[in-house]
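hey
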């Protein structure tokens, strides 16, 4: 099942919906109805046309809450400094740092990817990815807007 997270094109309210066959999502704030999701999207296929803005350009990104990776890295570095400060041998402190980095990398690999619409930034989760979609491209983003 594909999950949609977007902003209402009329009132900009946050909108989340499960895209189901024959069921058009609507805005919880103003009642604005979106068009019916395409059949292949409702069947968890890759998104080809955005069901919020009709855009056809998408990019993929890891479904990482913004800043989480940074927090993990920063706290590992802080831990390293604290361990050094209290006189823990360097190699133990270093292995804590390396273990955190490994954990971080492992977490990153396990994260699902999300498809995002260039034009309206609607996010599509849980569906198959289109191999033609690439990572965010600033030039493409400028063309679409
Ligand atoms: Zn609305
Ligand atoms: Zn869109």
């Amino acid at each position: 099942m594909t999950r949609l997270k977007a902003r209402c094109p009329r009132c900009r309210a946050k909108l989340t919906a499960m895209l189901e066959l024959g069921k058009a999502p609507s805005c919880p704030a103003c009642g604005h109805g979106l068009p019916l999701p395409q059949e292949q999207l409702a069947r968890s296929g890759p998104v080809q046309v955005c069901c919020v803005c009709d855009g056809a350009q998408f990019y993929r990104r890891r479904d990482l809450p913004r800043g989480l990776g940074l927090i993990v890295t920063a706290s590992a570095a802080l831990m390293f400094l604290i361990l050094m400060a209290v006189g823990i041998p360097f190699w133990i402190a270093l292995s804590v740092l390396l273990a955190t980095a490994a954990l971080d990398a492992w977490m990153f690999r396990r994260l699902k990817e999300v498809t995002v619409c260039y034009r309206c930034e609607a996010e599509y989760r849980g569906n198959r990815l289109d191999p033609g979609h690439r990572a965010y491209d600033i030039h493409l983003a400028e063309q679409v807007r």
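Strands lie at 2-7, 14-19, 58-62, 113-117, 123-125, 134-135. The radius of gyration is 20 Å.
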